[in-house]
Design a protein that fits this description.
The protein is α/β, with parallel strands linked by helices and 138 residues long. Helices cover 57% and strands 11% of the residues. The chain starts with a strand and ends with a strand. It is built from 7 helices and 5 strands. The chain has one domain: 5'-nuclease (Rossmann fold), CATH 3.40.50.1010.
């Protein structure tokens, strides 16, 4: 099982430099994500539409692909444990709130033992924090 930050999921939905890598990783199975990942993905896609990177015509297909992914991933729900971990992470690492929630969800998903679990992200700051927490980062 690998934890997928939103920045690792979005290349599965849009054509990006890391899309082929992320597709290979997805084919290995075992996607663990934070509860709000689909919302964050749609936010990223809408930004791409507004910027003209993704066309309006592509949007329904992207949403359909996201819905398909949702059928196969496991979500970490928003719980008190996630909130407490996120608060701790904000004191420990220079993270934004959403990134702290992502990393907290990964820690909960790893049952507080991140050593050996892979954390997929395209965010440098989040990658550094995940590595310091004991995750293998890709």
């Amino acid at each position: 099982m690998k934890f997928w930050d939103t920045s690792a999921v979005v290349p599965l939905l849009t054509d990006e430099a890391t899309s082929s890598l992320r597709l290979r990783q997805a084919e290995e199975g075992g996607m663990l994500v934070w509860w709000a990942t689909s919302v964050e993905c749609l936010s990223a896609v809408q930004r791409a539409v507004r910027a003209g990177i993704v066309s309006e015509r592509e949007y329904p297909n992207i949403v359909g692909h996201l819905r398909e992914l949702e059928q196969h991933w496991t979500e970490i729900e928003p719980t008190q444990q996630v909130r407490l971990q996120a608060e701790r992470l904000l004191r420990t690492h220079p993270l934004r709130a959403a990134d702290a929630l992502q990393l907290a969800a990964a820690i909960i998903g790893a049952e507080y033992e991140p050593n050996g679990m892979t954390f997929l992200t395209g965010d440098t700051r989040l990658a550094e924090a995940a590595a310091k927490e004991g995750f293998k980062v890709e």
